[in-house]
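Dear colleagues,

As part of the handover before I leave the project, I'm documenting each prediction I ran so the next person doesn't have to rerun anything. This entry is a single chain, and its sequence is reproduced below.
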Amino acid sequence: MDRSAEKLENIVASFDGIASRRQLQEAGMDVTHIYESLKEGILTKEAHGFFSLTKNPPDEFRLLQCRSEKIVFSYATALYLLGMSDRVPHVMDITVPQGDNVTKIRRDFPNLKVHYCKKELWELGIIQVTTPQGFNVKVYDKERCVCDLIRSKESVDMQIYSQAIKEYFSKNCNPRKIIKYARKFNIEEKVRLYMEVL
């Protein structure tokens, strides 16, 4: 392997397998070298301005989240990453603050379902988890996911809904935390009912 290819691999690896054009250029790769690497099949263009090594397909969760710091995995996707659902998501659920423009991201990721929430509630419950391929991404915690499911019951897959609600309230319930979240979303009565029944 020539030194420039090895250097390129090391640079991309240092960004967890996905690097932006700007990151590559700041690390010493000029535009010509980037495009030659694409032609030679060393690099693969993953989305507008983002590249991975062809021999190491990227983590789809990581690839999506590197597009914006405001992306948080939510709903069924978060439940899967938290181990509360065994169904691998074919559609990625993300939540962003109201007013954020994700048009370009939607174009690059057709299997995306975008949820919007008030800016003051967007940060509530954000944690980091490790994806199946070993990368850290932002998701909502169990309490936030349960609140989101209860708030959006009509538009959520009932099998995922039932599994998550039963598992949370019968095994993993943190009463103080879930009530605190429920108050912020104005669903305290519904949450207390689930706590009593399950």
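The mean pLDDT is 90. The chain has eleven helices and eight strands.

All the best with the project,
I.
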